[in-house]
Specification:
Layout lengths: L4 E5 L1 H9 L3 E4 L3 H11 L5 E4 L1 H7 L10 E4 L3
Parallel strand pairs: 1-2, 1-3, 3-4
Length: 74
């Protein structure tokens, strides 16, 4: 079982989460968001998403095999 907390999205919104121990996965474009999400599968228990990253991933987030996600407020 993975025990990693990851943060995915625009780097400028996620830097503070590094201080809390989250691994940061900067993704500025839609393709980068999708690639980072795929790389996280099986490696993260919780993923903190920026609102834009959550919008890009859409229905993929409801897949029961996906890690738990938390979306930052806009």
């Amino acid at each position: 079982m993975p025990d990693t907390v990851a943060a995915l999205g625009e780097q400028s919104l996620l830097e503070g989460y590094r201080l809390a121990g989250a691994s940061i996965h900067a993704a500025e474009t839609d393709d980068e968001v999708r690639q980072a999400w795929t790389a996280l599968q099986g490696n993260a228990a919780v993923v903190i998403l920026t609102p834009r990253a959550a919008g890009v991933l859409g229905a993929v987030l409801s897949d029961r095999r996906s890690p738990m996600t938390v979306v930052l407020p806009p």
